[in-house]
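Quick one: structure for this chain?
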Amino acid sequence: MLVRNILLSIGVLAILIGAVVAGVLMFGGHASRQAGHAVASKGVSVLAASRAIAPGQRLAESDLTWRDLPVKTAPSGSLARGKVTTAQFVGAVSRRGYAAGEIILDSGLTGSNDRQFLAAVLTPGLRAVTLVVDIAQSAAGLVLPNDRVDVVLVRDGATGAGTDSTRASVAQILLQDVRVVATDRTFDRSQPVPNGGAALPRTITVEVGERDAQ
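Got it. Here's what it folds into:
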């Protein structure tokens, strides 16, 4: 009788232990599935256009915003908040057009230090022509990128004949209201002038049509 009671007690204890172990395993598996679901559904904020952006447009901070997406739906090449800031892309040029709310990809922007920046900043169909300038021709260094200027050709020549001839300069306007793309190698008008403003630009690059470039 005593032996039977002992065996019965052992059997009940084994059942209780089995139930506890099964519960722990079941709860642990459920918790793991919930954790996995939480990771899969975790969101990320990516850089997007706050309004329509045209190809070749220089970006302002107001052109950029953040868009929340599930991690698994964020496209390759998207720019995540926390890894980048909107301030990093102020002055960059859009290599293609974006609709309002569209996600901006890293490959769709060109910075002023990139080799492809000149091609991106030019209006489609126009050409870049670089002119050598002096103090007067650069308006004492006051001409900046995105200013609009006239290009004037000044020629020295002689008027009259024989002993009555005199030297004279003749000015001719070649181009009017053309956009300055760069001064020396600077594309950004907000960038400080080297040497605290003491250095004057030696070249100015303007944007013109094919015929005007010739």
